[in-house]
Specification:
This protein is mostly helical and 281 residues long. Helices cover 79% and strands 0% of the residues. It is built from twelve helices and no strands. Helix 2 packs across helix 12, helix 3 packs antiparallel against helix 9 and helix 3 packs across helix 11. The longest helix has 48 residues. It is globular.
Length: 281
């Protein structure tokens, strides 16, 4: 049954309404980062001086650098560990403790972050590990691993195992099969998982608050602590720069995935052309 004209208009209107609701606050925040007034919601003219003031705020600069480092490291570790977990769950259907392993991998994704942060804090106290950048990376990796596992696992379930079996029959070792066959087929899922975990790490407040120590506050914690005392336009500048960083990462990832998809389509078309004459012969 084809949708009616009014149905299409209603769907488009609903879609634009959702986008308007989601992105209007972000657009407003970016515009007010150039506000000359000290009042966050009162427009006083166009200026760039809040950006120059932000560069002089060493607490914000250090927190931004720390958040970026933590996000880059924890996202990479989460994708590596999540890929290994996804391979275990997909390739090995039966082994002792599989149900427990699957539930433990997915637990941080559905468990309240307060519980995760508190449990990690108690563990760190028990082993007497000083809180800092390392502990924040551990917490963010634990959280991101669950999301990375789900993304990579969904892609692995769609991979044709006959291609891997054919590579093994041709004499390739399991490591070579993974590097030359499996990895290229799940590359887009790996990039999607990395971007997702990178954004989650850059945005996290609860776990970071439990695991951060003196001199190791991430950017969301600094913003949250300052928001209690009243906001000023420098917070809008910080949020604008964060949106810019995440947007650039998403753009680069999207362009890379689109390029990989086009390359994959060209390779399949070339393989089909090479196979067609052999069949006709």
């Amino acid at each position: 049954m084809k949708p009616t004209r009014w149905g299409k208009r209603l769907s488009l209107g609903w879609m634009f309404g959702i986008y308007f609701f989601l992105y209007l606050p972000i657009a407003t925040l970016i515009v007010y980062s150039f506000n000359d007034s000290k009042m966050v919601t009162l427009w006083g003219g166009f200026t760039f001086h809040w950006y120059s003031d932000l560069m002089q705020d060493q607490d914000i600069v250090d927190a931004f650098k720390l958040s970026l480092q933590v996000a880059l490291i924890s996202a990479t570790l989460a994708v590596v560990l999540g890929t290994l977990a996804a391979l275990t769950l997909v390739r090995y259907k039966r082994f002792r403790g599989r149900a427990m392993f699957s539930s433990m991998v997915n637990a941080p994704m559905v468990m309240p972050e307060v519980i995760v942060g508190l449990s990690l804090l108690l563990m760190l106290v028990a082993i007497q590990l000083e809180r800092g950048m390392l502990t924040i990376i551990i917490g963010h990796t634990l959280l991101g691993m669950s999301y990375a596992t789900v993304v990579v696992q969904s892609r692995l379930l769609e991979v044709d195992k006959s291609l891997e079996e054919a590579a093994l029959d041709l004499g390739a070792k399991p490591v070579q099969v993974f590097r030359l066959v499996t990895l290229p087929m799940i590359a887009q899922a790996l990039m999607s998982a990395w971007l997702l975990t990178f954004t989650i790490s850059l945005d996290d407040v609860v776990i970071s608050a439990f695991l951060s120590g003196p001199g190791s506050n991430t950017l969301p914690i600094v913003i949250f602590s300052r928001a209690k005392l009243g906001l000023n336009p420098t917070v809008n500048v910080v949020a604008t720069l964060t949106v810019l960083v995440v947007g650039i990462a998403l753009l680069i990832g999207s362009l890379w995935m689109a390029r990989q998809e086009r390359q994959r389509a060209r390779d399949m078309a070339l393989a089909w052309k090479q196979e067609s004459p052999s069949k006709s012969a």
